Structures are given as C-alpha cells and as structure tokens.
Queue: 3 jobs
Job 1
Amino acid sequence: MPETRPYIDLIRLYFIDEQVRYPWCLPLWQDLTGIKGGDLFGGAAGWSTEVEREIKVFFDEYRARDSEEERAMFARGGKGGADSEGRKFFSDWVGRMWERRWKLHTAFIEFFVEDNVHPLAIMKAANDLTMWPGSEMYVPQSHETAALALFGPEVFNDGILIRDFRFALNLFATWTWGKLRRTIKTDLGKMEKKHSEAFSAFEALIQTKPATTSQVAKVITSVGEWRKLTLIYSDSTTVQKANEMMDEVNCIMVEIAGEKAPSKAKAKAKGSGKRLTTFKKNPNNFIASEEGLSWIIGLYHQYFGREDDDHDGGARLLDKGTLAIRLEDVDAEQGDLGTELEAKMSYDLLSQRLGFRHHHLPHQFNQYRDDKGTQNAWDARDRDLFKKPSPDWVPNSLHWHQLRVTRI
C-alpha cells in the first residue's frame, strides 16, 4: 500500500462526523497531543491568528470537494491539489509534532513489537535480511492494539474497530513501516561498509611491522562499530561472522597485553580456534608504551566490556532480562513507575531510544573518567584532562538501571 502522509488522514478523520471533531474529541488522543477542547481551532493548537485562519480556509476547501478521491488529491497538493499557505502550515505542523512531540512513530513501532509484526523480527525469523515483508500482510494485525492505545474504546462498535478508524490507522502504520524500511536499508548498507572496514583493519595490522597502537585501536573500533549493528541485524550468518571477529579481537588483546589483557578477552580468546589473522606479538611487530596499552585496553572495555553484548543465538528486539523485580509487571494500582516499556528493552535499545548514540552516554558526559577520582574535566585546571592517553583513564558508562532513571 502506498504511503500517505499522516496530516492527510487527520483531515479526513476531522470530517467523518460534523457533530464532533475526530480524533481531537477523544480523551486519549487529547492526552497524547495535549490539545484539549475537542477541536483543533479556537486557539487549542496554539497557532497564531493568521496561521489558524489559513488552515481553516484549507480545511473548508477540502470539505467542499465532491468525493474522497478529489479530497485526497486536493490535500496532497501539487498538480491538481491545494497550493495554499494553509496546507503548508498544517502539513509542516503535523510533521513536526508527529514524532517530536506526540511520539507516534515510536508508538507504532512498539505496536508492531507487541503484536509480533515488526518487519525486522519477521526478516530475522526467516533468516533473510534482504526480503522486505509487505505491509499489507502484517500491518493490519496491529490495528486493534493501536486503536485502544491512541483512541480508546470509543472507536469500537460491539467490539469491532470502526472502519474509518481502521483505515486511518492503516495509513498511519504504513507510514511508520515505510520509514522503518528506509532506516533498515541504510543501516544494512552501513553494516556492509563497517564489515569491510573491520577486515581492512585486520589486514593493515598484520602487514605493517611494527604495528602501532593506532592500528590496534582501528581494529577495535571497526569491529566494535560493525558489531553494534549486528546486535540489531543478526541473522545466523551475521552472528557467526561477529563471533569470529570477536574471537580474533580477544586473541589480539591477549597477544599484546598478556596478563594485563581484560579478563573477558582472556576467557574468550580461544573461541572456535579459528584465527582470522596470523598476528603474534614479538619485539619486531608491535611496540607500545604503557600509556598506549592502557588506551587500547580502555577502548576494548568501551566497545566490548558489557557481558550482555555477547551473541547467544541472536540479538532480540526487546529483552526483559532477569530482573529480581519485573518492572513491566508494576501496574497503576500497585504503583506505576512509568517505565514498563523501558523494562522490556535491552541496554542498546534503551540507549538508542534515549538518544544516547555516542558511547551510550548523554552528550554532556565525557567519554572517559579519571579512575582515581581526583581530577574533574569540568574544572578549569583539568580542562585538558582527556587530550592525551593516561593509564588512569577508564571508559565512562551507565548501568541499565541508570539509563532507566534517566528516562524517568
């Protein structure tokens, strides 16, 4: 089904009943959007007088069209459609609010997950990340979930979702489905590039004598960046490649750091026994200062330090974990913490939803911290603290429960 921008179907819903203004009259929708009073107009949406007047003209011209086809064409604009300030104002406003304020793109993704129709989960179940599932087959399975969450029971008649709302939700969900397709396609393209960069980094390491700390760092960062994507997009073939690369990184860490190597690297260095490189440390092929070695170990902890990063049959979209207190089971009557959805998320997914895309940290945080706790990069005298390697550095990171508190 072709994608339709959400603002078009919001106009259609507005005129399905002249007595009330859907969906703006529905309490759940009002709570979600913050627009009260049962209507968009009369100052409820916070538009200026001029903008509201232009949008009202656009709505009136839309209603004057004779058929749904003419109305849809008019609302889309372009050839045969509206070319008015009101259309532009309204489409831009909905576009800004849809995810930034109302979080509806995220909501539909969560509906897909809840009803087991997330496109990535479907592709992974088929062990084929190249075959995109058609929206017409899977999207309708999430309509009832979405209707209850966004509109409430008012849009059901004898337990059946009213056709106009089913149609609207189908368009809204298809819009999200299309955005997911573009995002996943981009990420899969990045994954191929990162995979190639990782192999190139391994090749450079064994061909250069002596190898440098920066080349080892390139191996760690390249494998780490590629592996981040495999935690999401992991069919069985990708998991095998990720495990082989991880085994090689662990072997390299043990070779160059010996007893100082991270315990995780020493425990997992043997892996499957299959080596991707012939790298062996000797006085002629690798030289590093103590500071440089500490820097490399810090990078390893940054990318691979968490135990939950290990592939154990493939990454999951949501991971409930093994919490002693299952936060998703806390309901409103017993004390709603407001984090039931977050309680089901893995560390990486929660970081992504919070917008912590750089090392899983808020943008104000430093990537490293001083292990002794005697220096603070925010102090004027220590402003250059992290500009050169130091054995006192350790990667800065948040635990899962700290991320959850950030969400609250």
Job 2
Amino acid sequence: MSMLDPGNYMDRSEILSDKSSKKKSEVKKMKKGFKTKLDKAKAAGQLNIEVPIQSSSYLERFEKNSPRERQIDNMRRLKEIEARNREKNRAEESHRKKKLDQ
C-alpha cells in the first residue's frame, strides 16, 4: 500500500462543500440562538463580536465596594423590601376589614 493511495484523500469539491456546510450550520446556530455560553463565546471569537459579560453598573457595584459597604447596602435593601411588604400587608388587611364590615 503506497502513501499516495487515492482512497485516503478527498477531492477539492468535497473539501469545499464540507467547509460551506460548516459555515451554514454555524449561521443557522446564530440565527436560532446559542445553545450554550461556550457557543456564544466561540462565535464571538470567530466573528470578532464583542460579548458583554455583565452590565457595567453591576460590575461597578461589586468591584468598587468593600465587603462592609456591600453588607450595608444589602441591609438597606432588605429594610426597604420589609417596609414595602408591611405597607402591602396593612393595605390588604384594611381592605379585608372593609369587606367584612359591609
């Protein structure tokens, strides 16, 4: 068996059709949406598209703040949520009482 056995090689048309089918499948994947984050990153690398990792405000909030500032911020948010829930419960309770009185 010689190294130049023609059975081991694809002819030029097969190679070209193979490349075009790969491109078509990637275009279909892009149109359909990305299956995974890896596909998204792969496409971005191949097509030179910038993929935003996170919004800038999100990064600023967690990169610049110290752990103590984050804890204070989280406590403030928690208190706001609790206050909203108390108001909501108070309003629902007064609404129930009005219905019972009628």
Job 3
Amino acid sequence: IACRASPSTGFLRKHNICMVSDFFYPNMGGVESHIYQLSQCLIEKGHKVVIATHAYGSRKGVRYLTNGLKVYYLPLQVMYNQSTATTCFHSLPLLRCVFVRERITVVHAHSSFSAMAHDALFHAKTLGLNTVFTDHSLFGFADVSSVLTNKLLTVSLCDTNHIVCVSYTSKENTVLRAALNPEIVSVIPNAVDPTDFTPDPSQRPPDRITIVVISRLVYRKVLLVSNENMILNIRIL
C-alpha cells in the first residue's frame, strides 16, 4: 500500500487501513504472520492499522497487540477449516461498523480461501473505499473446489484497486484464475529476517550439511522430499 503525496502540501498522506481475513492469531500460519508483520511495518510508517477476523473460541471482541495494533474478533460462525460462510449479508453490519468507527480509507483483504476477505471487498466497494487484495496460495483449475473459488475470485477482484501476490508464479496463477489485467498485480515476495535465525557456528558439524525446511505439509505448498540414505552427509530437518 503506497502513500500518496498531496499536490497542495507535498506531505505523504496517512491512511486508516483495515486488514481483513479469516486467518489470524491465535491460529498459526503464513497468512497470519504476514498480516501481523505487515501491520507492524505500516504502523511504523505512521499509518493507523486495525485487523478484522472472526472469533476464535473465547477470544471475542476487541484485543490489542504490539504497538497498539487493534484486532476485532467478530462473532461470525466458522464453516470449514477456520473459514466463515460466504453470504455477504451476515458480515455486512459488523464489517460496516468497523469501517465507519475506525474511519477506514483502505481495506486490505488476504487469502482466496477467506470468506471474510471476499465479503470485505464487496462491502468496501459499497462504501466507496479503496481496496487491496493479497493472494498467498496457488490454485488449480480442474477440481471442484478450485473452480468455485476461481469464479468467486473473478467477481471479487473485478474492480479491486490493486492486487498483491507473494511470488511471480502466484501472480501468473492469480491473473489466469481471475482474468485480471497484469498491470494491476504487483509481486512482493515473502521474506524472513535472517538475523532472527542466525545459527551458532561453533555448533556446526564439520562433515555434514544441515538443511532446515519450514513449511506446512499441504499439496499446494512447495514440499521438499528427500531420502537421507540417498544424499550423503546431508541432514534435513
């Protein structure tokens, strides 16, 4: 999300941004950490950021995280795999209340799997707000789940202001699935801060290479499969 300079003052405009997704803490995953870290960076830039997600068990209402990050845990019913039902109507009063109360100027929805993300895009357009969508996963084109999701994505993104993908492969996949103009799709690769994962060189075995793979074991993610007996002197964790 870029700051726009005012033509009269020359100062960068500060936005009130609402991140919306079914997937956020205390649930764990790449989308959850992406939303949290992006929100913290935007707060450091001077923007106001709030997050809207569904309630997780007893975690309901409003909670505050680091740097005053405000999270709305809305009372929406989970349908499958931490995703709510896509009806548009049941989430309208709740999301509209958040957008109006926080004076939101940009709605940033995350993940094609998230029904709340699709609902938020519809409601934001109704309120005349700017919208951004970030796609985190790769989808197929043949199975029933992918066909239905792709049709919904085509409708959701038809007039979204900008789309972000986490890789160039993801961009090509999203452009094909949603019939998008590639010019409105940007690529911002996922990354980690290597200083947070610096190993102790003194503990490194001199005769073996150790590779650490951090990933969910699902089909659409990149999965490294190896046989330690076939690859000599390499240990994979």
